[in-house]
Amino acid sequence: MTSLPFPLLVDRFAPRCEFGRADHVVVEADPATAFQAVHDLDLTDLHGFLVTAAVRLRELPESWRERDRRTPRRRTRLTINDLTTGSDWVLLGEQPGQEIVFGAIGKVWQPVVKWVPVEARDFTDFAEPGYAKVVCSISVLPYGVRRSLVTAEMRVVLTDPRAWLSFRRYWRISTPFIGIISRAILRTVKHSAETGGPR
Asked: Which entry of 101, 127, 173, 194 is 20 to 30 Å from 167 by CA?
């Protein structure tokens, strides 16, 4: 007996993509506990030297541009639910207990990214040339009787051929750093789900 395909919410926003990656981890916890750990994930609290280096390297141009500000912008907490407040990312949707999807639109290959403010309802139809539509999904599936499979996936859709060429160059350089951050997110979710608290 075969089960029906699991419908992914991310398919609504990026049914096809030119670039993407997916990372997985098996969590020693039931899906409800694992999904709660996804909700509780604080993106400002990812651990590891390589994670810190990757994030700071990407933020360097923005930090340099804001070097003369008296009070530099620094978040103390950023859960996925906080994305809609003061962030260029937007929460696109959620399947309770299964998947949460968020995204952003911008010229991510530029040293200081030009982001486009967008509402979730307008994300799919956005087609202005010269931009990347980045969609991220974290999903949780049962894995056996008491475990869960947590997947972090990124899909990128480009709005025209010139944007595709620009992003391809950026992707070749950034892929290792994106992988570092993706795996750090999964490690943090795993630790939180298995121990009942943040790392």
From this structure: 101
* b/e map 164-173, b = 16+ CB within 10 Å: bebbeebbee
pLDDT tens, 112-163?
Answer: 888 899 999 999 999 999 999 999 999 999 999 899 999 999 999 999 999 9
Tell the residue number behind the tokens 């993706």, with chain if given. 182
pTM comes to 0.80
CATH domain 19-61+88-195 topology: Alpha-D-Glucose-1,6-Bisphosphate; Chain A, domain 4 (3.30.530)
Locate the domains of the chain by residue range.
19-61+88-195
φ, ψ dihedrals at 15, nearest 5°: -65, -25
What does each C-alpha distance from 178 to 16, 97, 155, 195, 199 come to in angstroms? 20, 25, 12, 26, 21
Cα dihedral: 35, 123, 175, 107 (round 10): -140
Q: Are 104 and 89 in contact (CB under 8 A)?
A: yes
pLDDT tier, 2 (very low <50, low <70, confident <90, very high otherwise)? very low
Q: Pull the structure tokens for residue 74.
A: 């620094």
Let me know if 193 is exposed, middle or buried by CB neighbors in 10 A (0-12, 13-18, 19+): buried
What pLDDT is recorded for position 7?
79
